């Protein structure tokens, strides 16, 4: 029987394991990427492994998140990442060069290769046929050192696209439709593979919008075939040599199939505060809008901004709206400025930001209290924009631009503007903000400013684990709740002690103080605990606060891996009703913890209520070692000692 594309690429990279869904497989990683907000930790961990030069085909360190530089902290991080990259064989994409995912697609991605990135939107690379996966910084550090990356063999969902999009209906509307169908936890343990004749009508940047936001499904990754359109894109980037055709076999099978007719699709919107709260734009049309933000790794491409420029040309942004645009990369910004489109955007009254993440991660442009902010980003979690009372609505660039002019959410299909844009035959290629690694690495001095503090390391698991249920939270808690990341906190990504004062603060501002007074304890979570970002800070900070286990109804993939890497037990309720029985402040005990972890089922005793809960720890052999030894770094250290 034939193989689907996901199976083919995994098979090509298989180092260990059987490719049966759910079973652990180890794969070889060809490329890695990091960005600055997760990169400092990843490189501190890489340095701790004492490996001279990366062993991947290509590793790139981007600066795109921490851009405001209102103090020395961000600049220190940039300097550290720049020097550590230079020393260890890593390409360094300087601030101003653009958002990691956009630049990686343009300049580095290779169809058929594997990419591991310390950012949850790494699956953007699936737009050119890569198996591109988001992970915690430590997993990326291990991959840079040539280590195998382990995942559970995913199920493969086929999303079959038929027909063509109507004018003003965008790739963003396709992924919002997939989110409507599958929800934010519908992709956990799955790869989303796109097929069907509709694929041919989508350019690479449009495919990348879809694979990018597959992260919001909780999916391991998303992938498109590599075809003639991919070839043209790579050719226009001056990289035709890396192209190869990649298609699923005709007789392959999928675990499930969803069919979407592009002809019938309408503009969609994700309403606050979750990317799967989907409505059609017409359902919410007329809602007053205060701010519009166009950009991010989801919709920061040349194609996106050309369409926006065509809509804005000769028009004026509504007087009640602040329109902010952040192109995805220097390449995009250069091309828009040289062809005059940027002038049309500026003339309309838009505010121009540098190429970077910016408002998407709350680095500036926080909206006013209770504001409605229309954004082309991928996440609309409460408070992420920097204003807890604001509501973020996720839309396509077309809907965003039209609404910026009208001052209210507007269905763009009612507009009568020609937005035809042809993909350029040649992109403006100028890699002068990418610094190749040093040819004399021994001469490079790694510079660490005072903001860079050591990362916490766990201890070997004790036989009896005791503590208080310090906090009980609801379903779909994001890593933005666990470790918020606005303009005030992002500069401290390399300073875990400082971050610890804000852990889970959006759920309960007293949590950090309580955790410190009680010397740690347990977190009680609902479904899909830890969805969203890949930030391992959401595990390292709880580790610093003494959290021993998280008891949840279910976990998001990357966060679960980060907890295990930190030696914190991720325990899943076997009987979900037990969640209701635990209250904050209950005293919990795990007896014979080591033996129980090895067994796979852990009984947690609630001393306060005199109850027992059966929890599934669901670990592979390697993960069990990590929990027993107090995290992945301890396992690596032990292996180095005996090698
Ligand atoms: C995000 O979009 O949430 C981020 C910021 O890019 C994160 C990474 C981080 O927290 O540094 C992600 O998606 O992984
Ligand atoms: Fe940056 Fe936003 Fe993309 Fe995260 S989702 S990488 S913050 S642009």
Structure description:
By secondary structure, this protein is α/β, with parallel strands linked by helices. It has three domains: 5-264, Aconitase, domain 3; 268-414, Aconitase, domain 3; 465-485 and 495-642, Aconitase, domain 4 (Alpha-Beta Barrel), CATH 3.20.19.10. It contains 22 helices and 27 strands. The strands form six sheets. It has a seven-stranded mixed beta barrel, surrounded by four helices. Strands 7-6-3-4-5-20 form a six-stranded mixed β-sheet. Helix 6 (171-182) runs parallel beside helix 7, helix 10 (302-312) runs parallel beside helix 13 (397-406) and helix 21 packs across helix 22. Bound molecules: alpha-methylisocitric acid and iron/sulfur cluster. Alpha-methylisocitric acid (MIC) binds at residues 37-38, 65, 119-121, 134, 361, 485, 532-535. Iron/sulfur cluster (SF4) is lined by residues 65, 99, 119, 121, 296-297, 357, 360-361, 377-378.
Topology:
Layout: H1 5-12, E1 14-16, E2 24-27, E3 31-34, H2 36-48, E4 58-62, H3 72-88, E5 91-93, H4 100-107, E6 114-117, E7 131-134, H5 137-144, E8 149-152, E9 155-162, H6 171-182, E10 190-195, H7 204-213, E11 221-223, H8 228-236, E12 256-261, E13 268-270, E14 278-280, H9 281-284, E15 291-295, H10 302-312, E16 322-326, H11 330-338, H12 341-347, E17 351-352, E18 372-375, E19 391-394, H13 397-406, E20 434-435, E21 465-472, H14 479-482, H15 496-499, H16 511-517, E22 521-525, H17 537-544, E23 547-552, H18 557-565, E24 569-573, H19 578-581, E25 587-590, H20 593-599, E26 601-606, E27 611-616, H21 621-629, H22 632-642
Helix pairs in contact: 2-3, 2-5, 6-7, 10-12, 10-13, 21-22
The structure holds alpha-methylisocitric acid (MIC) and iron/sulfur cluster.
């Amino acid at each position: 029987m034939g193989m689907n594309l996901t199976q083919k690429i995994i098979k090509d990279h298989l180092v260990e394991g059987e490719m049966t869904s759910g079973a652990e497989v180890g794969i070889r990683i060809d490329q890695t990427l990091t960005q600055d907000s997760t990169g400092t930790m990843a490189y501190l961990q890489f340095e701790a492994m004492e490996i001279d030069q990366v062993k991947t085909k290509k590793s790139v360190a981007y600066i795109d998140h921490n851009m405001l530089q209102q103090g020395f902290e961000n600049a220190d991080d940039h300097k550290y990442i720049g020097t550590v990259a230079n020393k260890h064989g890593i390409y360094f994409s300087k601030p101003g060069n653009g958002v990691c995912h956009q630049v990686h697609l343009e300049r580095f991605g290779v169809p058929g290769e594997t990419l591991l990135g310390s950012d949850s939107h790494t699956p953007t690379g699936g737009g050119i046929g890569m198996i591109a996966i988001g992970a915690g910084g430590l997993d990326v550090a291990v991959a840079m050192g040539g280590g195998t990356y382990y995942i559970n063999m995913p199920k493969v969902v086929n999303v079959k696209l038929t027909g063509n999009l109507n004018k003003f209906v965008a790739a963003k509307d396709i992924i919002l439709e997939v989110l409507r169908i599958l929800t934010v936890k519908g992709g956990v343990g799955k790869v989303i593979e796109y097929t069907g004749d509709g694929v041919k009508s989508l350019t690479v940047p449009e495919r990348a919008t879809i694979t990018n936001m597959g992260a919001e499904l909780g999916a391991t990754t998303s992938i498109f075939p590599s075809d003639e359109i991919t070839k043209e894109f790579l050719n226009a980037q001056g990289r035709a040599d890396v192209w190869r055709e990649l298609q699923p076999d005709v007789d392959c099978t999928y675990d499930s199939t969803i069919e979407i007719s592009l002809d019938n699709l309408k503009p969609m919107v994700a309403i606050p505060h979750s990317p799967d709260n989907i409505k059609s734009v017409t359902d919410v049309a007329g809602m007053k809008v205060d701010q519009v933000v166009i950009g991010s790794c989801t919709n920061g491409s040349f194609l996106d901004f050309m369409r926006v420029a065509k809509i804005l040309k000769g028009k004026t942004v509504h007087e009640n709206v602040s329109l902010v645009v952040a192109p995805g990369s220097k390449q995009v910004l250069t091309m828009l400025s040289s062809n005059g489109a940027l002038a049309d955007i500026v003339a309309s009254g838009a505010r121009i930001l540098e190429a970077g993440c910016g408002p998407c991660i709350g680095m500036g442009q926080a909206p006013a209290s209770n504001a409605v902010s229309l954004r082309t980003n991928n996440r609309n979690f409460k408070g992420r924009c920097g204003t807890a009372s604001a509501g973020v609505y996720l839309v396509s660039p077309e809907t965003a631009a039209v609404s910026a002019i009208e001052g209210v959410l507007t269905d763009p299909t009612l507009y009568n503007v020609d937005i035809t844009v042809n993909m350029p035959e040649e992109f403006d290629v100028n890699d002068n903000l990418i610094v190749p690694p040093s040819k004399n690495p021994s001469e490079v001095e790694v510079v660490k400013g005072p903001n860079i503090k050591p990362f916490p390391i766990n201890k070997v698991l004790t036989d009896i684990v005791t503590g208080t249920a310090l906090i009980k939270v609801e379903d779909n808690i994001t890593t933005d709740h666990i470790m918020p990341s606005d303009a005030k906190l992002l500069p401290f990504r390399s300073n875990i002690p400082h971050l610890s004062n804000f852990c889970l603060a959006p759920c309960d501002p007293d949590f950090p103080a309580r955790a410190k007074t009680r010397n740690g304890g347990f977190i009680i979570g609902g479904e899909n605990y830890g969805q969203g970002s890949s930030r391992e800070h959401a595990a390292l900070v709880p580790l610093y606060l003494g959290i021993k286990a998280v008891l949840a109804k279910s976990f998001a993939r990357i966060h679960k891996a980060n907890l295990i890497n930190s030696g914190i037990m991720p325990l899943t309720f076997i009987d979900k009703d037990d969640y209701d029985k635990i209250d904050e402040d209950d005293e919990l005990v795990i007896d014979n913890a080591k033996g129980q972890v090895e067994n796979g089922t852990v009984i947690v005793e609630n001393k306060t209520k005199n109850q027992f809960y059966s929890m599934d720890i669901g670990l592979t052999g390697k993960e069990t070692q990590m929990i027993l030894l107090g995290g992945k770094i301890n396992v690596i250290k032990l292996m180095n000692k005996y090698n």
